[in-house]
Design a protein that fits this description.
Strand content of chain A: 5-15%
Largest interface: A-B, 20 and 34 residues
Strand order of the largest sheet of chain A: 2-3
Helix content of chain A: 55-70%
Order of helices and strands of chain B: EEEEEHEE
Order of helices and strands of chain A: HEHHHHHEE
CATH architecture of the domain at 32-52 and 60-134 in chain A: Up-down Bundle
CATH superfamily of the domain at 32-52 and 60-134 in chain A: Nickel-containing superoxide dismutase
CATH topology of chain B: Umud Fragment, subunit A
CATH topology of the domain at 32-52 and 60-134 in chain A: Four Helix Bundle (Hemerythrin (Met), subunit A)
CATH superfamily of chain B: Umud Fragment, subunit A
Helix content of chain B: under 10%
Radius of gyration of chain A: 21 Å
Shape of chain B: globular
Distance between the termini of chain B: 21 Å
Largest sheet of chain B: 7 strands, antiparallel
CATH architecture of chain B: Ribbon
Number of strands of chain B: 7
Shape of chain A: flat
Structural class of chain B: mainly beta
Strand order of the largest sheet of chain B: 1-2-7-3-4-5-6
Structural class of chain A: mainly alpha
Distance between the termini of chain A: 65 Å
CATH class of the domain at 32-52 and 60-134 in chain A: Mainly Alpha
Oligomer: heterodimer
């Protein structure tokens, strides 16, 4: 028992790498839409946080309402920035393949940039980071459609954030 | 690679290897002999390291699959792997480390 414990302690000095034994069902269903929607939500929450105003020396009940609203907006911003990261990680790990990396050599750095921007937009009330996040997610969405041999189009988003979303262009011959 | 420790992420090799277990992978095992069907091997594919069991061999190409076949991402999806992509043989696993 003691020897076993010593052996395990000794092993902790060895560097450990990750080996994947994936159990993902290879269903082939991937879409960058969720990441875009979540990016828009991060922008919207940032807008709403920036829009909050309060007079100096407001009554406690008013202050409580504002703090409550900040908490709610921040929570949703946190969740959706994390959702962007989750969706991007799935596309990166499960969808994009070596041949895509050969054709789009900047794909790794684009993914890395998106993950860092999502963290920044999550940590701060930063409209520039939130907008840049969406822009880079959309660049990745365009690459995604290209890898599938599909045309994509940027259309005006139906969200209060304005801006655009990237969709498969069904009007053009594929 | 002579000897490395890998932490397993995923369930495709259950029950032989569980998610979160650490395994020793030896590159020495295949210095003097070729990988055999039934061996659990670590290999590099798409810039990531995977652990699977060899099911079929065709010259220097190996068809690998997970033991948990219903849900495993394996050669049915990733294709045959080449001998050059094999890093080594899983020689033993460690449960709590």
């Amino acid at each position: 028992m003691k020897i076993n414990s010593l052996f395990l302690d000794f092993l902790k000095f060895f560097p450990t790498k990750v080996a994947y034994a994936h159990c993902d069902i290879p269903c082939g269903i991937y879409d960058p839409h969720m990441a875009q929607m979540a990016s828009h939500t991060v922008i919207r929450m940032t807008q709403m946080l920036n829009d909050l105003t309060a007079e100096k020396d407001i009554p406690f009940e008013e202050r409580k309402k504002i703090i409550h609203q900040i908490a709610r907006l921040t929570k949703v911003k946190e969740e959706h920035a994390e959702l962007v990261k989750h969706e991007i990680r799935v596309l990166w790990a499960d969808y994009f393949k070596e041949e895509h990396l050969k054709k789009y050599p900047d794909l790794h750095s684009l993914i890395f940039k998106i993950l860092k921007l999502a963290s920044k937009a999550r940590q701060e009330i930063n409209m520039d980071a939130a907008n840049e996040l969406l822009e880079n997610v959309q660049k990745m969405a365009e690459i995604f459609f290209e890898t599938k041999g599909l045309k994509s189009v940027r259309v005006k988003s139906p969200y209060p954030t304005g801006g655009e979303i990237v969709l498969q262009d069904v009007r053009r011959p594929q | 690679m002579l000897l490395s420790i890998f932490k397993i992420s995923g369930h495709s090799m259950e029950p032989a290897i569980r998610d979160g277990q650490n395994v020793f992978v030896s590159g020495i095992s295949y210095l003097f002999s070729k990988p055999k069907a039934g061996d659990i091997v670590a290999f590099r594919k798409n810039e990531k390291v995977f652990v699977k069991r060899i099911a079929k061999i065709n010259n220097d190409n190996y068809f690998v699959r997970g033991d948990n076949r219903e849900d495993s991402l394996d050669s049915r999806k990733i294709g045959w792997i080449n001998r050059k992509e094999i890093l080594g043989k899983v020689i033993f696993k460690i449960s709590n480390y």
